[in-house]
Amino acid sequence: MDPRRPVPFSPAVVHLFAALILSFSSLPSEALAQEPGGRSPPGEAIGCEGQQVDICGVCAGDGSSCEVVSGTFSRSILSMGYHRILEIPIGAQELKIQETVKSRNYLAIRTSTGESVINGNWVIDRPGIFYAAGTTLTYRRPNEIRSKTGESITAPGPTQQELHIYMIYQQPNPSIYYEYVLPRANIPDSEETPGPDIRPIEPLGLYPLEEQGFVHPDASGKENSIGGVHSNHVLSETSPPTADGPSGKLYPGLLPPYIWSATGTTPCSATCGTGRRHVVFGCVEQLTLTPAPADFCEPTQLPGPREEHCHTQPCPAFWDVGEWSECSKTCGPGFQNRQVLCRRPLGNQSTGVVGPEQCGHLESPETIVSCQLKICSEWQIRSEWTSCSVPCGVGQRTREVLCVDNLGDVVMDEECNMKLRPPDVENCDMGPCARSWFFSPWSERCSADCGEGRRSRSVVCLTNYISSLPLDGCGDEVPDESSLCDIGPCHHKFEWYTGQWGQCSAECGNGTQTRSVVCMLHSDGHLDVASPSNCSHLPRPTSTQPCFLKRCGATWYVTEWSACSRSCDGGYRVREVRCLADDKTISIGCDPTLVPKEREECNMQACIPEIDENCRDMYYNCNVVVQARLCVYSYYRRACCVSCTRVSRRESQLRRR
Asked: What is the mean pLDDT of the chain?
């Protein structure tokens, strides 16, 4: 049962709630093996020799020897406490009472003599096996979290004593299905049987059958009903109680002798500030207000839950301590800090920040403490210096330097102080090195196919690691890199000859240079110039090649001049000027004093008017034609040709400017 659910406030129900807390348990280990109606499935019984047993337990029966009584109790709202909902007669078999909807209500059973069997006397029993009325009663209460099934009570029967079924009401809209089998020999004749017993069973609030919410088969005369209402249904009094009424209670006049009265309150929900508490009602004698057992008062007249405010002394201020920050150092001594504020409760579970002096009655918490996550790692030199990388001259040598933590494990260099890292590389001077001329073998091929030519080899000055001579250099006498060779005299052989390369065409940047290429005839040691066609069978050497003397740096570049804006009387022409670097990108490195002009005058000669002998003014007042802007018409242009032409030229000059 959820301890947060509302509970009645009468003393008896408070005891019931305490009993509920102590009665948590799970389902019995055996599972329900019943049909939806609660009956055991028909099958073979001992002694039936393979024959089927009907619902009445008769071998090969047709079910006519008994009656299945079933129905559903449901009602929206009842008063808190016990309510008798069903009476099961003697001889009933295959009993099943089952909550159809899981709720906080509980089932209870008493015998007709008033003896409690299950959940009686305001105590909730654990699920299990109970013995009463000559049969075994199995009480099941499924796990309240995992299961969606409500409580149930089952018994095989037959009952040897009448059983009264109760519901302990705590949650609205209860729904309880009941079913049992009653042999027809035990069903009383409706004409000979007096009305149902209406004696009250305390503490039971009785209501008319319709108000109790019984749902049963049609009362029009079917087999499982007697006189419209089954004999096991509990009926209530149909008239108000009087001093000698059927309820058995004595009332002075029409007023009950016992009433519900406020007898105290629950403890305040807060020890300081504003809290809430519930009013506790108890049963008292009306005239003397003397406490009486709760059973003496009507459960239906118990007032509903009542809550009131309770004021205690103001809550004192307190220190609100935040979480410690991370240590300021990942290794070695550091510090941590936290925020500490003085707060005072304001009610409604809220607080406000106040001055620290209001928390002066409390010891102020620390806001900063020292910390050390681990001992810092340190540098270790793991090897001696290696030998120098060169046998002579200046080289390098190395050694192994590692960062090691306090456990001796090698870690990343960043975990040690990089400023204190010992060097692991240094220069080493092995003294001056001797140097000698080294040369490759002479080429086997002569530069000329005939006559005198040359052979070549490569010569280089290198360090001599073997020589023990105290030489500081190779000296100025460089060994020959070429030598003469002569394969034999040439006889009428044509060959291309090239001259020296000329100067580069550009003083800086990219340029070109050229040389002479001629076809020569070798004949008995003489060279004669021949036609280039005689050497066409040989690859012609190139006569031009690109050259680059130096970088130009930033240089002014210009475009071609545009056309002059006028053909005479002075106009102007323009060009674009840009400063470009060697890679032809825009630069600001050009000398501003050498920037080329972007605009200059042109066609400064005077315009010579063209004389048209046929162009003349035919009227003396052509100036009026010009003023009236009539020159746009061809007639006036012919009649006042000189005046209109003069105006047209003047406007054209103005537009060009």
From this structure: 76
Q: Are strands 368-371 and 401-404 parallel, antiparallel or unpaired?
A: unpaired
Residue 44 is given by DSSP the state B
**What separation in angstroms does the CA of 533 have from each of 184, 515, 527, 529?**
143, 19, 17, 12
CATH number for the domain whose boundaries are 11-30+63-215 = 2.60.120.830
Whether the pLDDT of residue 341 is over 70: the answer is: yes
- DSSP character at residue 295: G
Alpha helical stretches, state H, 428-492: none
Partner residues linked to 278 by β-bridges: 307
Specify which residues 179 forms β-bridges with. 70, 96
Helices (H), ranges, 409-549 = none
Burial class (CB in 10 A: 0-12, 13-18, 19+), 541: exposed
**Within 13 Å of residue 586, how many CA atoms lie on the same side as its CB?**
2
- Which is more confidently placed, 468 or 324? 324
User: What contacts 26, CB < 8 A, 6 or more positions away?
Assistant: 127, 142, 143
Task: Using DSSP, state whether 331 is helix, strand or coil.
Answer: coil
What is the rounded CA–CA span in Å between residue 575 and residue 599? 7
- 3-state SS track over 46-92: CCCCCCEECCCCCECCCCCCEEEEEEEEECCCCCCEEEEEEEECCCC
Give the total residue count for the chain.
Answer: 657
Separation of alpha carbons 120 and 109, rounded Å? 7
The CA distance from 287 to 293, in Å, is 15
Residue 502 to residue 499: CA distance in whole angstroms: 9
In DSSP notation, 497-534 reads: EE------S-SSSEEEEE--EEEEEEETTEEEEE-GGG
Here the tokens at position 315 are 């809550």
Question: Is 384 in contact with 398 (CB distance < 8 Å)?
Answer: no
The DSSP bridge pattern shows strands 128-132 and 214-215 to be: unpaired
pLDDT for 235 equals 36
172: which 2 tokens? 């609205």
For CATH 2.60.120.830, list the domain ranges present in the chain.
11-30+63-215
Span 243-280, pLDDT tens digits:
333 333 333 333 457 888 888 888 888 777 777 889 99
Q: Which two tokens stand for residue 251?
A: 């009332």
| Angstrom distance (rounded) from CA 366 to CA 361 | 16
Element (H or E) spanning 170, and its range?
none
CA distances from residue 225 to 65, 71, 228, 467 in whole angstroms, order as listed: 16, 11, 6, 134
DSSP symbol at 606: P
Can you tell me which residue has the tokens 């301590």?
A: 321
Mean pLDDT calculated for residue range 218-226: 35
- CATH 2.20.100 range(s) for the chain read 432-488
H-helix or E-strand containing 270? none
Nearest by Cα to 31 from 176, 142, 171: 142
pLDDT at 525: 67
Whole-number Å distance between alpha carbons of 334 and 441? 73
Residue 522 confidence class, pLDDT cut points 50, 70, 90: confident
Residues 156 and 131 sit within 8 Å (Cβ to Cβ): no
For 395-418, the pLDDT digits (tens) are 899 999 999 988 888 988 888 888
| Domain 432-488 fold | TSP-1 type 1 repeat (2.20.100)
Compute the C-alpha angle 239/243/246, nearest 5°.
Answer: 45
Q: What are phi and psi of 629, to 5 degrees?
A: 55, 45
Instruction: Show the tokens assigned to 97.
Output: 């009472």
